[in-house]
Amino acid sequence: MRLLTHNLLQCHVKGCSTNNYPLRVEATNVVHKEADFNPEFITHMLQKIEWNALRTTASALGVAELPEILPLSMEGQEELLKQIHLVLMETHIMDGKLVCPGCSHEYLVTHGVGNMLLIEDEV
Ligand SMILES: [Zn+2]
């Protein structure tokens, strides 16, 4: 699971609607896989992602220390874009779990795939 995907996930247990984002990553295996760098795509994705959640997660996983505030324009910010690319696209949570800060529900991640399904009495 890419951190890009993680950034878009929130807990969807019934009744869990506050403090349900971002899911805390407790990973036992995080890997780096090279991906083609596409600055336009990264710039575009910056409008969709939650920056603070990404920063916190990247820092907690020891992947990168991202700046607190993004520059107003990404024009000429090649180094920063590469750093964000590394975090969003090249960092994969392979095994571990994602824990909801609100209800403590645990979503397992196995072989890079997150199981976001809930059993019947949780929906
Ligand atoms: Zn929850």
UniProtKB/TrEMBL annotation:
<dbReference type="Pfam" id="PF03966">
    <property type="entry name" value="Trm112p"/>
</dbReference>
<comment type="similarity">
    <text>Belongs to the TRM112 family.</text>
</comment>
<dbReference type="InterPro" id="IPR005651">
    <property type="entry name" value="Trm112-like"/>
</dbReference>
<dbReference type="GO" id="GO:0030488">
    <property type="term" value="P:tRNA methylation"/>
</dbReference>
<dbReference type="GO" id="GO:0046982">
    <property type="term" value="F:protein heterodimerization activity"/>
</dbReference>
<protein>
    <submittedName>
        <fullName>Uncharacterized protein</fullName>
    </submittedName>
</protein>
<dbReference type="InterPro" id="IPR039127">
    <property type="entry name" value="Trm112"/>
</dbReference>
<dbReference type="GO" id="GO:0070476">
    <property type="term" value="P:rRNA (guanine-N7)-methylation"/>
</dbReference>
